[in-house]
Amino acid sequence: MIEELIRRAAAGESAAEYELEQLAAETPAALTPHLPDLLAAGSWFSPKLYRTAGDDIQQAVVTMIDEGGSDLNALLLILAHARGPVAENAFRRWRDQPPPGAGELFIGPADYMVEGGWTLEDGRVRDLCGRTAYALRPDPDRTVEPPDQGECPWCRAPLWTVLDVDTGDPRVAEALAHTGWDGRLRIVTCQGCYAYTTLYSTVSPDGRSGLSGHSAAPVRVIDDQSPPMTLRKVPAELLTDPGMSAGGWDMTTPSIGGHPGWIGDAEYPACPACARTMDYIGMEEAQDPEGEPVAEGTTYLFLDASCGLAATIYQQT
């Protein structure tokens, strides 16, 4: 079955490509024995297919890149998603000695690492995502938090508490373990302006939060001062674990932890205080008291625990 899908995908059949992507998302290990065939067939349409690639496949990709492979962008994405010692060493080398064709890329070769949810910091690998994720579901009492969290300095709308969790809950502690955060984490943002700029929030372990002065003014201001009608969300069922036995890899619904299922390109913000790449911690969607979406798109949440800053990034189709 998989061999036939690979053959059809190599011929450019979109339905086969979609089936392979679904297989990679749900049971990636099933593709592992077939990765040499995928690579040889030039099936590079989705780097997520190669997440379980071992040293041999990674080395083959590195060699193709060093020899001036025909699609450098696709090959770098494959290597970023595969990660591992071979990929890490190659990206270290390419920081100082870019491969052939790197000058034609929009970003440097080493900047591709974040697409796989990791980066190199002081020469060491740093995970930007948690390996465990839990769904965020409406609180059973369906309590809507009152709009008393301050107001946006640009549109004057009441701020939205986009996340309110505490590491006293073992699920939260597990999902945020990669960040080093300890305590209550409440993040506020502006539901009207966050689509037009990266908004940063100050956070503290006692649950205090407010918009940070590091936030830049949005390129567009919506004249809507109505309070955000949102449900308070709490952690619920396990979505994925380090062994991926509980589900797929990328998160596409409200959740805490895990790896973001980006609508567009990966957008990990840099901490405005220390310039480190911020940790991904979850995603959310604005919903009214009846559970219906009040805005299109997805809000991606980030944290720099040491600087006490959070960020929201918005993407939509």
Question: CA-to-CA gap between the ends?
Answer: 32 Å
Could you tell me the strand content as a percent range?
15-25%
What would you call the shape? globular
**DSSP, total strands:** 14
Summed up, the helix count is 7
User: What characterizes the major β-sheet?
Assistant: 8 strands, antiparallel
Mean pLDDT: 88
- SSE order: HHHHHHEEEEHEEEEEEEEEE
| Overall radius of gyration | 21 Å
Please list the strands of the largest sheet in the order they lie side by side. 7-6-14-13-12-10-3-8
| Low-confidence sequence ranges | none
Your description of this structure?
The protein is of the alpha+beta class and 317 residues long. It has 2 domains: 2-119, no CATH class; 133-315, no CATH class. 22% of the residues lie in helices and 22% in strands. It is built from 7 helices and 14 strands. The chain has helices spanning 2-10, 14-26, 35-40, 55-66, 72-82, 85-96, 170-175, and strands spanning 118-121, 124-127, 133-138, 160-166, 184-189, 199-203, 209-211, 233-240, 250-251, 255-257, 259-260, 279-284, 298-304, 309-315. It has an 8-stranded antiparallel beta sheet. Strands 1-2 form a two-stranded antiparallel ribbon. Strand 6 (199-203) and strand 7 form a beta hairpin. Helix 1 (2-10) crosses helix 2 and helix 4 (55-66) runs antiparallel to helix 5 (72-82). The two termini are 32 Å apart. 40% of the residues are buried. The mean pLDDT is 88. This is DUF1963 domain-containing protein.
